[in-house]
Amino acid sequence: MVFRFRVAILAALVVGLPALAAEPIESGLKPGQKPGPYTAVVSVGKERGQLHCFICETEDKPAVVVFARSLSDGLGKLVRGLDKALLDNKKADLRAWVTFLNDDQQKFDPLVVAWGRQQSSKSVPLAIFEDLTGPPTYRLHRGADVTVLLFVKQKVVKNFAFKDGALTDAQVDEILKGVGELVK
User: What is the pLDDT of residue 12?
Assistant: First the structure.
């Protein structure tokens, strides 16, 4: 009897753990909230090596800000998709950038530069915010590997958040569809 109970508990854990990993995670500003200014050191982009505030120059334009903690393949697909969206939506003056969260900017910078080259990033700036928690007003969840905020007229309209390894091709497509709706 005890053996069957233990087997049942073990089976429930094995079946339940993937479901827990797939649970959505809340991270970042909610729709309707205003993204606040923050600065990060640019690793890839025309402001390379400088502290820069992308939010400050965005004003009411449509924008995509990506906060990431790791250099993943899913994030690479998203960056390539954002590169294309920036080219396709020049008239809308769409903005997009990635802010990596890392506690050692100097050590992480060459990795970001190499990853940017590998991903063929042309138009999407890559920057590093030297704090694993991110800008305080953004309330980024520590368990979120990637948080994507779409906003226009200084208001968030969509929020996407993913645990480590959970950013799939289908989710990248969903984000890019949201970008398309943002510039309509």
Answer: 43
Predicted pLDDT at 120: 86
Domain CATH for 151: 3.40.30.10
Q: Is residue 2 part of a domain?
A: no
For the chain, the residue count is: 184
Residue 7, in any domain of the structure: no
- Cα separation values, 71 from 12, 28, 108, 164, 169, Å: 33, 19, 10, 10, 15
pLDDT score at 121: 82
Residue 8 domain flag: no
Domain that holds residue 167: 27-182
Look at the chain and report how many structural domains it folds into: 1
pLDDT, position 23: 67
In a domain, 13, yes or no: no
Q: What is the dihedral of CA 149, 27, 72, 16, to 10 degrees?
A: -140
Helix (H, G, I), strand (E, B) or coil at 31: coil
- Determine the residue type at 15: V
Helices 73-88 & 105-118 angle (0-180, nearest 10):
70
Predicted TM-score (pTM) of the model is 0.87
Question: Contact, 178 vs 150, CB < 8 A?
Answer: yes
Write out pLDDT tens, residues 10-24.
Answer: 444 444 444 444 567
